[in-house]
Amino acid sequence: MSSTVNLGSIFGIQFRLHFSWFVIFTLVTVFLSWQVFPPALLEQSQLVYWTMGAVTSLLFFASVVTHELAHGLVGRANGITIKSITLFIFGGAAHMTREPSKAAQELRMAVAGPISSLVMAGLFWMVWNTFSSTGPQLALMALWLAQINLVLAVFNLFPGFPLDGGRVLRALVWHFSGSYKKATRVATQAGRVVGYLFVLGGATIIILYQEWLSGVWLGLIGLFLESTARASYKQAMLQQVLQGMTAGEVMLSDCRRVSAETTVSQLAMEYGDSGEECFIVAGEGRAEGIIALHNIVSVAKSEKGATRLGEIARPLEKLSIAKPGDDVLGIVQHMNEAGHDEVAVMSQDGLVGLITLESLIKLVNRHPDFNS
Ligand SMILES: [Zn+2]
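^ thats the input. predicted complex w/ zinc ion below
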């Protein structure tokens, strides 16, 4: 992801800031410095309000990082590697290399975040308590941080995937039914319901209290949750179906060889209806590049007559390479990380096939498990 800034790593976990984080950081700082602190603590200079706002905002995001770090460390203690944590406009997202393989692992990792938020709420509450008479600025900041950490803990415990509460729900259904698939379906459907409820809640806040900012914000989080829940189900099913399969088993192996001089419209005329999903573009006898179906479709209609396959083919040396025996899930993960839509499969004899994201999704969609 190029839209993120690397912050370095804590305990071997990479921390990143997505550019959208700067928007939310600014909003929170402005909100605190204008709306929250001045009415609660009168007769301070603007400099004091803004300093309090910025410092509190930073500590708030440090709290979010601590919450995610708690997931990461407990996950790691349970055999799940968390590679990176990204802060973005809706909070923090941990990037796991794989989903938990046991219900107990999932449960422990899920509750670690809200527990850490509760602990932080308690710590900030103690700071507020200690300084309430001697340091009113510090006390006020601590009070807000205690409240927001409490909100964070409660919010994350709503029982809809991908929220922590949704992971708890999945772990419980998984434990009692023994079915990961059923548990994922229940938890992600609950996630969509929670998402819609948040949208409804946001609308209610706007209608009843005219609180536009909070209402729109809650609504946006609801929409984000709903779409993430839907995508998570697809992702989980993709994993489920591809588990244990090798590159050789899923690759498109019958890619037809075509000349680099052929134009896109010639290719469409000859093979347009044949259902072929990949082509190997050959120069002088040897394979030079690869074209998947989606590359051809994306060429504008008016350009099809003049565009030669040699121009749009992805050269072999620019493609990620896998071996026929490689684990497909590992390859999917690599494609996700690198942002690649295709991987070339090479044996000692050279190019033997192509794996495209499109073909994997088709494979999963055809699978009986996916439609039941
Ligand atoms: Zn969490």
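The chain has 14 helices and eleven strands.
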